[in-house]
Structure formats: structure tokens, C-alpha cells
Amino acid sequence: MLAVREWLRNLSMCFAVGCFGGLCYALGLWAMGSYGFTRWLGVDLAPHLSNAYLYQRIVWGGLCGLLFLLPWRNAWLLRGALLSLLPAAFLLFYLLPQRGYDYGAFVLGTMTPLVIVLACAIGGIAASALLRLQGK
Questions:
Q1: Is residue 85 one of the residues assigned to a domain?
Q2: Is 3 exposed, middle or buried (0-12, 13-18, 19+ CB in 10 A)?
Q3: Whose CA is closest to 54, among 80, 24, 33?
Q4: Which of 28, 53, 74, 84 reaches 20 to 30 Å from 116, CA-CA?
Q5: How many C-beta atoms lie closer than 10 Å to residue 132's C-beta?
Q6: Which of 20, 31, 130 is nearest to 79 (CA)?
Q7: pTM, two decimal places
């Protein structure tokens, strides 16, 4: 019974830090678009802040936070950066093509994968840092 309780505690903690990471991802991507970084790179990606924009990314971030259940406790910065590559790949090779873009979303600009990977890294590192602050 104690093992199940600990597993549920870890599950909810990973989902919560993933939600925080999703929020950081959304705000990072918004900031890159709002302050002209994406335009400077030639990428046509500048989302507008809205409840729907934030909510969707927070929920997806929570689901992606479940990756932190993997038994990898060392090097929180590296853990966050490397685990963020999985959601970035999911976005670039599945989700964006489902929304009508090509693989990698190069139609938005040749540097689009870089922007997506950077935004995901912001979220992954923030989530990993919060998880480390919780002693996990």
C-alpha cells in the first residue's frame, strides 16, 4: 500500500511540474514571438496569449511531465534538456503535420525546428528545476 501511495505521489508531482513546464514553454514561445526573436530568425511563429493558448500547452505539458517518471535522477539540467527533445519531436513530426504543416514545419521558416526545440527546452529545464527543488 505504501508503494502505491509513493507511486501516486510521484505521478502527481511529475504531472504538476510538467504543467509548470508547459506554462514556461508557452510563455517562452510567446516571448520569442512578441519580442521579435522568431522574426529575426525568419520564422513566422508569434502566438498570441489567450486562455485557450495557455490551457492547451499547460495540459500537454502535464502529460509530457510524466516523462520525469523515468528513473533518471542525476544532472537535472541535462535531464530537462534531453527529455524536452521528445515533446519537440512530437510537435515537429506529428502534431504540426496534423495541423496542415509539413514535417518540421519548414513552411513557417527554415529555423522553425530550432525555435520549437528552444521553447521545449525552456519548459523541460524549468520543469526539471522545479522537480529538483522538490527533492526528486
A1: yes
A2: exposed
A3: 24
A4: 74
A5: 16
A6: 130
A7: 0.90
Kindly indicate the confidence band of residue 38, based on its pLDDT and cuts at 50, 70 and 90: very high
In a domain, 83, yes or no: yes
d(C-alpha 38, C-alpha 55), whole Å = 22
DSSP state of 125: H
Q: Extract the C-alpha cell encoding 33.
A: 514571438
What percent of the chain is predicted at pLDDT more than 70?
Answer: 99
Q: What is the pLDDT of residue 79?
A: 87
Q: Which among 72, 96, 82 has a CA at the least distance from the CA of 14?
A: 72
**Contact partners, residue 116, CB within 8 Å, separation at least 6:** 88, 91, 92, 105
On whether residue 1 sits in a domain, the answer given is: no
User: Which grid cell sits at 116?
Assistant: 520549437
The C-alpha cell at 133 is 527543488
- Domain total of the chain: 1
Q: Does residue 2 lie in a domain region?
A: no
- Residue 1 DSSP code: -
Distance CA 25, CA 21 (A): 6
